[in-house]
Amino acid sequence: MKNMYKSTLCGRQLAFEETISEHVPALHRAARRILPSEDLAWDAVQETLVRAWSYPELPEQPLPLLLSLIRRSCLHILRCSRRRSDHEFIAAAERTSRCCPMDPEGAAADPAATAAERDEIRHMSAMASRLTREHREVLELVAWRGLSYDEAATRLQLPIGTVRSRTSRARAALSQILTDHASETPAC
Hints:
Helix content: over 70%
Largest sheet: none
Shape: rod-shaped
Mean pLDDT: 80
CATH class of the largest domain: Mainly Alpha
Number of strands: 0
Oligomer: single chain
Number of helices: 8
Number of domains: 2
Strand content: under 5%
Order of helices and strands: HHHHHHHH
Radius of gyration: 33 Å
CATH architecture of the largest domain: Orthogonal Bundle
Low-confidence stretches: none
Distance between the termini: 76 Å
């Protein structure tokens, strides 16, 4: 009984190959017109052939049926890849906002770089905490938030000259703090 099933299966496979083999190039051309890549086109052809194999019997002229199946396969692949890219974009955005709270819209794709950036921000914040309150306020507005001297002067309700001189002194003080800290830290 097992040999009879095997011989029937082999006969069906040979008949299927004979019927389909001449249409494979046309299926690939049709898929290539719809899909953006060679690999996806071959995936669609393979999916079409698997679907065609599931039919108990193919029509005498199978090309119209095969072209209908290839079209469905291509549309299915396009929908899946679009959905996948949408999900990947959303997941990347969520991962970025979790990894880098300082820059939620940035592309923090590398977790190591994000961790290094967070460490540097913590280090700079610790060093800046040694500055006077006036120097920290000015540096935060001008250097870290990117406000102009005029905008910072308006926000702090100070003359622009005072903001410029405080910024200069704050940068010099922070530079000195960083230099002192570097000389205190032993080299690895």
